[in-house]
């Protein structure tokens, strides 16, 4: 039996803006077990931050209930705060201070002795790779180093549960990869339960064993990235033809393929189906036999964006979001 770390029932939060009501979170039912690494994935405005802010006691729910480590987020705020670490969007430490001093002050604020706070700060500085910069003013740190310091601040009191709101927003790809590695290491070393929000598809895919997809304040899917992709999407086969009429004829023929969704656009036909790489040779042979030459092929694996598109009819992708698209050769390999 796994210990429940987070349990919400009908968790709801409304905001009133002028006379309008914004239903930021609508009746969320969630359970997160101790030790899980869960990503809340959704577009801007889906309700991810509002959910975290309720779970971290920063704002009360409009209705519904939530417990964290067995404590009620409304009635037992102090107990909840003792067991969690929260790294919001751009916490930003005081800039003239040295990172190490920031960490010790934060530890003291949690009631740690100076000695314990110093010891823990030194540990975190080492494990988050901050040794070279910990004694410099925070204002001189790079974005990636500041974000790692934010994480150290959230971890100073050794929380059992860490909330990370958009941990890598504003970081370049190298720093993002670096940060992800640090988070995974922390978890491996301390068994910390981690809940992070992200709208980076690749981040959710690479880090989380469980992805909770949120849209308009409700959960629309909840599973491992691999299962989500297998259940809600298929491979995308793109076929290129010499003419629009060939593409139209090919699409008509491919429509007969069981379990496949076919769309034609110009001289290109897209087929969404399971087991794409295995289907392609047969498709080429079949079309060839009916006098339609396939000029190019590509097979792309499904991404979490395809899952979201399939579930909502909209794309989650925003500018700069990486994909896990691979070429036909890689798929076949
Ligand atoms: N303090 C507030 N007052 C009014 N509306 C709010 C407030 N906070 C959030 N909202 C609204 O609630 C909805 C959910 O916002 P929330 O910040 O939770 O989304 P999100 O999924 O975290 O988005 P992002 O990825 O952009 O951070 C949005 O429509 C937002 O405008």
Distance between the termini: 40 Å
Main sheet summary: 6 strands, mixed
**What is the level 1 CATH name of the largest domain?**
Alpha Beta
Give the name of the CATH superfamily of the largest domain: P-loop containing nucleotide triphosphate hydrolases
- The dominant shape is elongated
Poorly predicted runs are 319-333
- The assembly state of the depicted protein chains is single chain
Order of helices and strands: EEEHEEHEHHHEHEHEEHEHEEHEHH
Counting DSSP H or I runs of 4 or more residues, the number of helices is 12
Instruction: Please bin the fraction of helical residues.
Output: 25-40%
Q: Cα-atom Rg, whole angstroms?
A: 24 Å
- Bound small molecules, deduplicated: adenosine-5'-triphosphate
In total, how many domains does the architecture comprise? 2
The strand count comes to 14
Looking at the overall shape, the CATH architecture of the largest domain is 3-Layer(aba) Sandwich
* Average of the residue pLDDT scores: 86
Q: What spatial order of strands do you see in the largest sheet?
A: 6-7-8-3-9-10
Given helix and strand content, the structural type is alpha/beta
Strand percentage: 25-35%
GO biological process, one term: response to antibiotic
GO molecular function: ATP binding; ATP hydrolysis activity
Membrane topology: Peripheral membrane protein
Keywords: Antibiotic resistance, ATP-binding, Nucleotide-binding, Transport
